[in-house]
């Protein structure tokens, strides 16, 4: 039902697969993605945890896992990236922005993230990801519906209008308890900051610990209207 044909419009393919796979398991969704896109499929990971990378490597050992190094990450995040590369059966690809933080500071002034976080995210996240994803037709993310109201309608397979690619969120229907259970069962690497009060881990200047009762992404760009970096919005 969700097989790809030569003449398939990729948007129609994505929408059809999203409906057909809504109740499928994460492994079934990833198996469809690997069967459909082969080497033109990758996983993107923020290195908050390696759950989707682990799932995908079970389906396709050596799968491409793309990490975006903005230059502003916590050391714990870079350490998680290094550990994933060392112990998991994946091909880790690190994308970097065109300019270093020092070069950006020279051009735009220091702490652009405080003055214009949308521009900072556009330069350090959105642009390098778009360049890095050019060789793929489909990418998988770890987005979950329970993370925030803005993610409540995330399809398990959808069409990424901005990039013209199929976007797969195999754990969209999972809860935090599902993630915790998978991590415990499979000994999956997680970012140490998750044990230190952080519920969602992004760039250091724009991430704080969450308070009791806050949703998982409340610690990202806290105090600002901004809730997404532009990768998923
Ligand atoms: Fe810049 Fe903050 Fe966006 Fe990171 S999350 S790219 S530091 S604005």
TrEMBL record:
Query: What Gene3D superfamilies does the record tag this protein with?
Result: HUPs
* EC assignment: 1.8.4.10
Q: In which pathway does it act?
A: Sulfur metabolism; hydrogen sulfide biosynthesis; sulfite from sulfate
Q: Which residues form the Phosphoadenosine phosphosulphate reductase domain?
A: 46-208
**Any GO BP annotation:** hydrogen sulfide biosynthetic process
Q: Where in the cell is it found?
A: Cytoplasm
Protein's UniProt name: Adenosine 5'-phosphosulfate reductase
Q: Which organism is it from?
A: Streptomyces scopuliridis RB72
């Amino acid at each position: 039902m969700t097989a790809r044909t030569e003449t398939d419009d990729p948007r129609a393919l994505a929408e059809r697969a999203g409906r057909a796979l809504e109740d499928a398991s994460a492994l079934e969704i990833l198996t469809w993605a690997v069967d459909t896109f082969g080497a033109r499929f990758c996983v993107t990971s923020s290195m908050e945890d390696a759950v989707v990378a682990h799932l995908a490597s079970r389906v396709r050992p050596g799968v491409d896992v793309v990490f975006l190094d903005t230059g502003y990450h916590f050391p714990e995040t870079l350490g998680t990236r290094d550990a994933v590369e060392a112990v998991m059966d994946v091909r880790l690809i690190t994308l970097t922005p065109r300019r270093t933080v020092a070069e950006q500071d020279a051009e735009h002034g220091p702490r652009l993230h405080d003055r214009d976080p949308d521009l900072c995210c556009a330069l350090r996240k959105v642009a390098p990801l778009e360049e890095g994803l050019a060789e793929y037709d489909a990418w998988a993310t770890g987005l979950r519906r329970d993370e925030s109201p803005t993610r409540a309608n995330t399809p398990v397979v959808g069409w990424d209008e901005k990039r013209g690619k199929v976007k797969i969120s195999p754990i969209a229907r999972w809860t935090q308890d599902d993630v915790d259970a998978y991590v415990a069962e499979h000994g999956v690497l997680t970012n140490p900051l998750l044990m230190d009060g952080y519920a969602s881990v992004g760039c250091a200047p724009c991430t704080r610990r969450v308070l009791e009762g806050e949703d998982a992404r409340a610690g990202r760009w806290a105090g600002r209207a901004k809730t997404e970096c532009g990768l998923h919005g």
